[in-house]
């Protein structure tokens, strides 16, 4: 499966592929109410560092952190939305960018003007190389492969101690001062991070709307059809993956200055999972979800640590993750709608229970699994005949059942 | 239709999820009751936790509470050691009756997982959110380096290292507000090299260590003295922190050595020691400072059978050694923690104790002035101060680094119990001039 | 020569352990298309259960059995409570298991702390034994692990290919409705598969903890190794898991013996190399 179960794809509106990207944005941007909301949001973001109490905490530990974390998640969500590929490897490119900047500047005195672009470029190139292999796989295979690649890099930086200083990592950096503005100043850093995040967001949004983005979603929904139309499916997927790597790399360079360095601990498995949690928590169906989720997770972890919630941080993160996956599929950005939906269902269930008049509509809890059938048929409109899947258990990639075929 | 069906089923599962959440909360609270401390988040919890009304004791003192942020590695590979460190801190708090210079002490404990990012994140949280001016922590070398660099950014905060042992922390560009009241990793093993040659007669060794700052320093310190005294290095073996499989590393250790110097700690040490027996490694083992700490001696399994005869050098004396006030400390530890503690205090207990007490003594010396002058008087006080700790006199050199005694000891079996016995005390071992990087040959 | 033999044996015995862990993962995937990323946490749980039971009853075999049963039960509960409703969405299922893995590992850290634990094997399995080749003395316990893995492998293969139950499972994967129509309760069958798959992780944990200590982080280590094994061997294939485990075990041990610094990288490189040539793994099939 190409992961479409996590990525919104309404079976009834399977084509044309561009429809779903336009719908949401049109609604926001057209109409004065939407413009008002946008203006208010911009105002809030700009005024934010000047109005919050404890700015050191809210601006640095919450806002800037959410911004760079959001950009990594943005790369994951963009990739998932447009290609159906869910990656656990975005931290790989994040790390390559951070380490390249660190190794070049702190250990070889290359100026930041050179090392930052070099880091992002190298990370993007690594993305292209990983893509060569990764995009040949699908669904959970892709998930596991990207996870393994990120672990490979983790061990690589751990072991290449002469370059990366191993376990200690690179620290003690001096932050650059572009145009005489020191990045040690939290407001400068905040606006830089905000600008980068906004830029990354705009770029992702724009690319989704180009013919390239449309083709990607066409491939996501029906690779066979697109292939028949003459598209080079492999190349498109590769380019998409590389683009996502680029976005993650930008975040890696930003986070390098946020942390004042980088160490293997910043890119281990738990951090990769964090990015995934951010995406799911925020809502993997919307690019906004990246930032909503980053803010959510950052707050959650900070406040769990502060003892506001009587649960260990990791356990709490896990519980929230599972609850969101099971009950709030749209994540934070879609929360109001989902709550309304639950309200309705709850009322209906209540009425049904009282009146016993809607029984037929709800599943008897004894029956199971079959509820999924209709969707599967609707989505994978070309479901293969049973015989082809074969009865053996070693049918490696049959997970593509509802995806590519 | 389909939508509603799934929703219905999810609603059904809701109570189950709620139960899961509850279970998770509950087990957490239970844990605090059982094991003392792995999850101390709430501000001031330290006060309440010791029972017998210390909370009110703290209230008796006049003046604003003095808030100390603490970073302890309660998650990750050294969790057990950190828990023992917390016991050392509790001993100090009890000694001071939870107040210093007439002000009640309030402790905020943040848990780290021994990664530098987490340590700095937690430090940021303490400084920015809780507004602390004093930080006590961390445990591991990489964390220490990260915090020392963070110290440069936050000049109004005074950081007292709890137990970290990386050399660079107080060597390359030491921060004026970073204090370390114990020796660093290279100093711990420096006297071991000559001792091995002179007393044990091992002239050709191999080394095996984890590949990060602290073991780098340990191997460096050992090899410097060892090579200088005429010893010969056969090979070096480095494994990543957390390696559990040593069988093939053991197989690749050369045969023509007299002994192997092993600087591993925590679960890595346990795995190595048990596999060393399984795979018939018959060479004597010279231990780094963490190889046979209490957590290893008391860990479960067959390791216990295999550590006899290991010679190590540590920054604290064996429990049986009659030096300084050490015996009093051991006794107090055993009285305070008869059940949950180790049989004898680990290095983390004494290092946390010394560093935390040094901080409190410094505050006392500074007359409780901490916040007003951004820590100026506290730093001046600590730089000048010296006191007799349970493991010997403590004072700081110009890098705000203590130069303490090092204790070389041997693991012996005594009535079926494993203990360590003192062989030699090296007094006031000096801080080296350069930090040790990873060494693969004798330092020149 | 000795060294090569010993390292080769290490590779074989480590491969056995990897196979024990990975076989459960691949079994569940093969039957139900579910990637259980909590498998590493299940390994850890199995080890700790065996440890506790061994402490309480002083019986090693009881510890093994308890680990098997307890972890199998946990697996079934996880499947029934959390996964069944979303069974058809394989990606979401994988993510939920990541969440479960985080929670479980963290709670185990709470109960067992950070001290390394090991499950001490009984006397008749400890110590070394003469192999009669080049005078090598090899730990008896590791030979036992090797034998156990071979036994489990053969049993699984026979179970799936030769028994009626195995046939039902294979049919159930293929067309659940049709199997249901013949009067077989597919849900029970799938629960059984989940039980067996998870129990294998528990067993592996209990057995593995006799050779390598358990500590926080062990879960991630074994999850990664079993993922690599099944990716290399081909997801869903039991023989694939065996071959994958063998490759990974041997490559990682020789790397550890000769270039310990880059050992983990070599292992991952093996995986990527295999994938570059065969994206579906060595014995995996294309759709």
TrEMBL record, chain A:
Q: Where is the composition biased (Basic and acidic residues)?
A: 7-21, 354-376, 395-405
Q: Does the keyword Amino-acid biosynthesis apply?
A: no
What Pfam families does the entry give? BPD_transp_2
Per the record, which residues fall in region Disordered?
1-21, 353-405
Where in or outside the cell? Answer: Cell membrane
How the protein sits in the membrane? Multi-pass membrane protein
The domain of life for this entry's organism is Bacteria
Listed name of the protein: Branched-chain amino acid ABC transporter permease
UniProt organism field: Phytoactinopolyspora halophila
From TrEMBL, chain C:
On the tree of life, the source organism's domain of life is Bacteria
The record's subcellular location field reads: Cell membrane
Q: GO CC annotation: what is one?
A: plasma membrane
Please list every transmembrane segment annotated in the UniProt record, as residue ranges.
12-30, 37-54, 60-81, 93-114, 141-160, 188-212, 224-248, 255-277
What GO molecular function annotations does the UniProt record carry, in alphabetical order?
transmembrane transporter activity
- Tell me how this protein sits in the membrane: Multi-pass membrane protein
Q: Which InterPro entries does its entry note? A: ABC_transp_permease (IPR001851), BCAA_transport_permease (IPR052157)
Record-level GO BP terms: amino acid transport
Keywords linked to the UniProt accession: Amino-acid transport, Cell membrane, Membrane, Transmembrane, Transmembrane helix, Transport
* CDD domains for the chain: TM_PBP1_LivH_like
Which PANTHER family has this protein been placed in?
Answer: ABC TRANSPORTER ATP-BINDING PROTEIN, BRANCHED-CHAIN AMINO ACID TRANSPORT SYSTEM PERMEASE PROTEIN LIVH
Family named by the database record: Belongs to the binding-protein-dependent transport system permease family. LivHM subfamily.
**Protein name (database record):** Branched-chain amino acid ABC transporter permease
């Amino acid at each position: 499966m190409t992961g479409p179960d996590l990525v919104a794809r309404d079976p009834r509106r399977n084509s044309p592929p561009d429809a779903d990207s336009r719908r949401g944005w049109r609604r926001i941007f057209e109409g004065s109410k939407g413009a008002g909301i946008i203006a208010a949001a911009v105002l809030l973001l700009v005024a934010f560092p000047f109005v919050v109490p404890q700015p050191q905490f809210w601006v640095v530990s919450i806002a800037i952190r959410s911004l760079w974390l959001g950009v990594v998640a943005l790369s994951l969500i963009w990739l998932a939305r447009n290609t159906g590929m869910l990656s656990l490897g975005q931290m790989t490119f994040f790390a390559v960018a951070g380490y390249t900047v660190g190794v070049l500047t702190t250990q070889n005195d290359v100026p930041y003007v050179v090392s930052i672009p070099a880091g992002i470029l190298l990370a993007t190139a690594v993305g292209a190389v990983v893509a060569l292999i990764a995009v040949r796989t699908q669904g959970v295979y892709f998930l596991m492969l990207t996870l393994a690649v990120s672990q490979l890099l983790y061990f690589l930086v751990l072991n290449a101690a002469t370059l990366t200083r191993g376990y200690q990592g690179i620290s003690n950096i001096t932050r650059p001062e572009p145009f005489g503005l020191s990045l040690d100043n939290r407001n400068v850093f905040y606006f830089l991070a905000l600008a980068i995040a906004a830029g990354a967001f705009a770029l992702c949004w724009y690319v989704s709307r180009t013919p390239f983005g449309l083709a990607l979603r066409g491939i996501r929904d029906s690779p066979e059809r697109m292939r028949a139309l003459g598209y080079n499916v492999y190349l498109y997927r590769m380019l998409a993956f590389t683009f996502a790597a680029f976005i993650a790399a930008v975040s890696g360079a930003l986070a390098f200055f946020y942390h004042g360095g980088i160490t293997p601990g910043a890119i281990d498995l738990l951090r990769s999972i964090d990015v995934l949690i951010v995406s799911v928590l925020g809502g993997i169906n919307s690019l906004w979800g990246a930032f909503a989720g980053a803010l959510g997770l950052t707050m959650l972890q900070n406040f769990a640590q502060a003892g506001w919630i009587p649960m260990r941080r990791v356990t709490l993160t896990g519980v929230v993750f599972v609850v969101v996956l099971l009950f709030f599929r749209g994540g934070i950005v879609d929360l109001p709608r989902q709550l309304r939906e639950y309200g309705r269902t709850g009322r209906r269930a209540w009425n049904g229970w009282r009146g016993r008049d809607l029984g037929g509509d709800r599943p008897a809890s004894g029956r199971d699994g079959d509820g999924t059938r209709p969707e599967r048929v609707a989505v994978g409109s070309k479901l293969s005949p049973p015989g082809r899947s074969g009865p053996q258990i070693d049918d490696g990639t049959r997970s593509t059942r509802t995806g590519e075929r | 239709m389909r939508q509603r069906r799934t929703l219905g089923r999810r609603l059904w599962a809701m109570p189950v999820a709620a139960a899961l959440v509850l279970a998770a909360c509950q087990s957490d609270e239970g844990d605090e009751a059982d094991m003392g401390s792995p999850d101390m988040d709430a501000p001031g919890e330290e006060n309440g936790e010791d029972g017998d009304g210390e909370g009110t004791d703290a209230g008796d003192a006049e003046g604003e509470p003095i808030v100390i942020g603490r970073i302890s590695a309660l998650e990750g590979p050294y969790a057990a050691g950190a828990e023992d460190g917390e016991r050392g801190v509790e001993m100090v708090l009890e000694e001071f009756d939870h107040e210093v210079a007439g002000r009640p002490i309030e402790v905020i404990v943040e848990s780290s997982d021994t990664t530098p990012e987490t340590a700095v994140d937690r430090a940021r949280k303490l400084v920015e959110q809780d507004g602390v001016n004093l930080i006590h922590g961390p445990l591991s070398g990489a964390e220490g380096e990260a915090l020392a660099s963070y110290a440069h950014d936050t000049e109004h905060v005074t950081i007292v290292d709890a137990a970290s042992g990386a050399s660079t922390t107080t060597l390359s560009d030491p921060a004026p507000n970073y204090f370390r009241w114990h020796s660093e990793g290279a100093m711990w093993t420096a006297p071991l090299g000559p001792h091995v040659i002179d007393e044990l007669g091992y002239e050709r060794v191999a080394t095996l260590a984890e590949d990060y700052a602290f073991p780098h320093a340990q191997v460096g310190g050992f090899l410097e003295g060892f090579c200088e005294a005429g010893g010969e290095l056969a090979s070096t073996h480095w494994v990543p922190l957390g390696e559990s499989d040593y069988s093939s590393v053991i197989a690749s250790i050369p045969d023509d050595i007299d002994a192997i110097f092993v600087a591993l700690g925590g679960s890595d040490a346990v795995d190595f020691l048990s596999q060393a027996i399984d795979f018939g490694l018959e060479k004597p083992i010279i231990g780094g400072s963490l190889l046979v700490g209490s957590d290893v001696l008391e860990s479960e399994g067959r390791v216990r059978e295999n550590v006899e005869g290991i010679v190590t050098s540590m920054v604290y004396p064996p429990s049986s050694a009659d030096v300084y006030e050490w015996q009093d400390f051991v006794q107090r530890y055993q009285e305070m923690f008869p059940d949950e503690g180790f049989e004898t205090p680990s290095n983390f207990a004494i290092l946390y104790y010394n560093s935390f007490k040094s901080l409190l003594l410094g505050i006392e010396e500074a007359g409780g002035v901490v916040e007003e002058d951004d820590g100026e008087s506290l730093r001046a006080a600590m730089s000048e101060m010296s006191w007799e700790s349970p493991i010997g006199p403590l004072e700081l050199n110009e890098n705000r680094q203590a130069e303490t005694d090092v204790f070389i000891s041997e693991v012996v079996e005594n009535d079926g119990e494993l203990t360590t016995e003192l062989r030699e005390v090296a007094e006031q071992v000096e801080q080296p001039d350069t930090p040790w990087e990873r060494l693969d040959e004798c330092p020149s | 020569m000795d060294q090569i033999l010993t390292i080769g044996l290490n590779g074989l015995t480590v491969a056995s352990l990897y196979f024990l862990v990975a076989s459960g993962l691949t079994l569940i995937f093969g039957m139900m298309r579910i990637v259980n990323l909590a498998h590493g946490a299940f390994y850890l749980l199995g080890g700790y259960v065996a440890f506790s039971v061994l402490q309480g009853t002083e019986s090693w075999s009881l510890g093994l059995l308890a680990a098997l049963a307890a972890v199998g039960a946990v697996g079934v509960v996880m499947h029934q409570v959390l996964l069944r409703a979303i069974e058809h969405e394989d990606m979401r299922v994988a993510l939920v298991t990541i969440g479960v893995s985080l929670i479980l590992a963290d709670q185990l850290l709470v109960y067992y702390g950070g001290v390394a634990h090991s499950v001490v094997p009984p006397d008749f399995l400890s110590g070394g034994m003469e192999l009669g080749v080049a005078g090598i003395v090899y730990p008896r316990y590791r030979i036992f692990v090797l034998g156990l893995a071979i036994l489990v492998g053969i049993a699984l293969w026979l179970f799936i290919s030769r028994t009626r139950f195995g046939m039902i499972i294979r049919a159930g994967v293929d067309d659940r409705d049709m199997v249901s129509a013949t009067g077989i309760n597919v849900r029970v069958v799938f629960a059984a598969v989940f039980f067996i798959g998870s129990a294998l992780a528990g067993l592996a944990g209990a057995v593995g903890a006799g050779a390598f200590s358990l500590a926080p982080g062990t879960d991630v280590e074994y999850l990664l190794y079993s993922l690599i094994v099944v990716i290399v061997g081909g997801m869903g294939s039991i023989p694939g898991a065996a071959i994958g485990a063998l490759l990974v075990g041997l490559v990682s041990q020789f790397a550890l013996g000769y270039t310990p610094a880059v050992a983990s990288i070599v292992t991952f490189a093996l995986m990527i190399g295999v994938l570059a040539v065969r994206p579906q793994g060595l014995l995996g099939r294309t759709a």
